[in-house]
């Protein structure tokens, strides 16, 4: 299952084996071996693969059917906007957020919800 999910997500994300290999820090041959089920990634590589493919190790291992790591995407979005990760839980940080930024954050959350629950 790991091999199929790595290959499927890699293609969905429009990455070549070489591109994924660069993100994980292995050779393209190693990625090829994972996808052909000749070898399996170790735990450290599995974590890197999940990060590179914007998913979770649970999904890659078949322990979950939730492909997207939404929390990571939300955290990344907030970091890209210049907010510390703790902003979600810090009332004082939220009070500093400008109205237009709140609107952007709301739209992003709506987008994520639509991805999981299309009309």
Average per-residue pLDDT, rounded, comes to 83
Strand proportion, as a percent range, falls in under 5%
Order of helices and strands: HHHHHHHH
Estimate the helix proportion, in percent.
Answer: 55-70%
Distance between the termini: 30 Å
CATH superfamily of the largest domain, by name, is lambda repressor-like DNA-binding domains
- CATH architectural designation of the largest domain: Orthogonal Bundle
Identify the overall geometry.
elongated
What is the overall number of helices?
Answer: 8
The total beta strand count reads 0
Task: Give a summary of the structure in a few sentences.
The protein is an all-alpha fold. The chain has helices spanning 2-12, 17-24, 28-35, 43-52, 57-61, 70-80, 91-95, 99-116.
């Amino acid at each position: 299952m790991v091999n199929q999910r790595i290959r499927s997500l890699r293609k969905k994300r429009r990455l070549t084996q070489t591109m994924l290999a660069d993100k994980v820090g292995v050779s393209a041959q190693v990625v090829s071996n994972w996808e052909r089920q000749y070898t399996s990634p170790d735990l450290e590589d599995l974590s890197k693969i999940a990060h590179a493919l914007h998913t979770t190790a649970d999904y890659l291992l078949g322990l979950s059917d939730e492909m997207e790591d939404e929390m990571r995407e939300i955290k990344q979005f907030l970091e890209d906007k210049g907010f510390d990760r703790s902003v979600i839980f810090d009332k004082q940080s939220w009070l500093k957020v400008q109205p237009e930024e709140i609107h952007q954050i709301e739209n992003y959350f709506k987008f994520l919800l639509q991805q999981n629950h299309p009309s």
